Sequence to fold (211 residues):
Amino acid sequence: MRILITAGPTREPLDAIRLLTNRSSGQLGIAVASEAIKRGHDTTLLLGRGTHSPPSTIEACCRRFDSTNDLQSLLDETFPAADLLIMAAAVADFIPEQAPAGTKMSRHDGPVQLTLHPAPDLVATIANRKRPEQTVVGFALEPGATLIDRAIAKLSKKGLDAIVANPLDTMESSHITARLIWANGQIDTAADDLTKEAFATWLLDRLAPGL
Ligand code: C5P
Fold:
């Protein structure tokens, strides 16, 4: 199977030296890519910068991105040849209006206001355009109390085939407690507090069974 995985944060420049980013470590996507390669899948990992370095075993299948725009270009290039997209990247929801190229906001007294514009929803766009035989799986990282409801709402709004629902404390952790929710309403529950490596095995058993 040709599996495309995205992982890690996007980084949006505020000026020539500052970035707006998030705490995603990319660990889960790296674990899924490692497991996919071990199973013999034709695997590509699109990985944000500022994350854990990928192990040498997956370096050859790994391409790095910085901004949402970079990730969009890589997805445009690689998604058409994929059977399965696992969209674990923590993509920006808002992109700052940038200072002119090569400039740096200088320090001054008083508050500074940033203007943020909504980012394009990459996975929703892809899910909208995908061929029927392609599978698109997203992630929902939400506070525990509203996790499942919000994940189901995202699954349907974005037009995904399935979504991994995981609570906020998954971020930067080596462990994960998650459920896989399918568009037909089926919910698969993984054991609590799995290592991300064990969760990668569990997830691929469901998304790419048979190998
Ligand atoms: O809307 P929210 O950011 O919570 O949705 C999470 C899912 O949507 C993840 O799979 C993430 O990779 C994807 N996403 C995206 N483009 C964005 C924001 C999120 O593809 N701008």
